[in-house]
Design brief:
Length: about 280
Amino acid sequence: MRFVIVTGMSGAGKSTALKMFEDFGYFCVDNLPIPLIKTFAKIAYDENTEIDNVAIGIDIRNGKNLEEASIYLNALEEDKIHYEILFLEAMDETLVKRYKETRRRHPLAAEGRIEDGIQEEREKMAFLKSKASYIIDTSKLLTRELNMELQKIFVKNEEYHNFIVTILSFGFKYGIPLDADLVFDVRFLPNPYYVPSLRTLTGNMEVIQEYVKQGGEAQEFLDKLKDMILFLIPKYKKEGRNQLVIAIGCTGGKHRSVTMANLLSKELAGGEYTMKTIHKDIEEN
């Protein structure tokens, strides 16, 4: 039995997430009055109730009751009723864009600016975020990617860390990724493109990786880069960041950048964060 409270910023995808939970077989209730949380949890955990898993949605629409949520959550803990909180987050600019695209009004904006409503909501939701079991930033997630993340946590029961490190390979000829926090240029490494038998292959293949690593510069660069990233991650966490996007580029985004992204992902595996590796331009000509 899993009792999940789905919450977060308005516009970050809570309604979409709840629909996904329904597809996972969860019994879902959106906008449940907060004073009913404890009662509902007891019903859900009752052995005579034929419910396997539950997901309930609460957000800023709960109004003044939201301020009392900590009281009811503490009551659950006192009664040893286990619950998990999924907090969906997004950057301010993403939330503003989503509201403007849908022409919806922010619950706290009234006739004012959307930005002001978002800031007020962040303040009111901060205590729920601090208690969250899982925090997912949907700013750059496609719907299918959010579905995959939720499946990992709530269906497959895989380990999940709230801080996400994304290693992103790309080709400079196609432009630097807009969502990159750190950008590194590996065009100084040996280029397999100029070897006819290797040109059509990619950095996902061992023969390409061995070619790029020749001379030792790739490993030296990798060691220095790993040290710097491990130094930076705690700093980003301290600042309240939920993710770090590291972009590694070469000319075409097929050989050197893919190789180094794959190698860096292996070097960083096993830390207190969730790892993702994306090869943005590997299919380009």
